Amino acid sequence: MARKSPVYPYLRCRSFGHSWGDPYIDTVRDREYRARTKLYDGHQICQDCSQCPTVRRGFMDVLGSMYSGCWSYVYPQDYRWTSEDPMKRQDWRRDYVRIVKLTRRQS
Ligand SMILES: [Zn+2]
User: Which of 17, 18, 27, 58 is in Cβ range 3.0-4.6 Å of 49 for a Cys bridge?
Assistant: First the structure.
């Protein structure tokens, strides 16, 4: 029997992006922010990827604006991909459709 080579566990997210779940307030970061700033002008918001352990987080003010306009990302330790050839999103997708048999259905 041929040995299967280990598949990079984050291939789907690298290929098609993360699948963000419902946003929630990170109470620990919220408490730290309030203790540090003494401000009650928003919340530390997080979202978990439903396909991998990546979390994105950012500060959202009471008007719904994200602090500095963007999220920060917390990746699992083995998420980083090191190779002599840098992989673009297109390369990840190419590998994904080679490795994973896509389902077919009528839309
Ligand atoms: Zn993901």
Answer: 18
What tens digit of pLDDT does each residue of 43-80 get? 999 999 999 999 999 999 999 999 877 899 999 999 99
For residue 103, give every residue at least 6 positions away whose Cβ sits within 8 Å of its Cβ, in sequence order, or none. Answer: none
What residues have CB less than 8 Å from 78, skipping those under 6 apart?
9
Tell me how far the alpha carbon of residue 37 lies from the centroid of ligand 1, in angstroms. 32
Rounded distance between C-alpha atoms, residue 86 and residue 78, angstroms = 16
CA 86 vs. chain centroid, Å, equals 19
Q: Could you tell me the distance, in angstroms and rounded to a whole number, from the CA of residue 19 to the centre of ligand 1?
A: 6
